[in-house]
Amino acid sequence: MRAVAARVTEARVTVDDEVVGAIGEPGLLVLLGVHVSDTADKAVTMARKLHELRILRDEQSCATAGAPLLVVSQFTLYGDTRKGRRPSWTQAARPEAALTLFDRVVAELRERGARVATGKFGAMMAVHSVNDGPFTVLVEV
User: What is the pTM (predicted TM-score) of this model?
Assistant: First the structure.
């Protein structure tokens, strides 16, 4: 499982000009990709890492600061561009499996007490964010 976590002052996701998920205060925008070999255990680990990741101001995490997360599915994080000019998607999980594990990450975050907004899985989304820093890291489990 792979995520790009960006520290933001605000972020939102729109689908067909309708806001489907938003955070209006400092927190994390998380683009989450699921690998073909990922498991429920990895989803639990990813949720913990994202919640406890100390990249907010003053080395805070969402867990310690009570900051929200906007989590957006992003299968393209597993695009392989090593050969040719067209990415290969063979390492990205199929939509059914990816949705199950994406939902598991979100559920685990919420069980930890995190405030979580999401995009719309499988939809063509427009992601708007105001990066803070900018401070962005790649998280892999």
Answer: 0.96
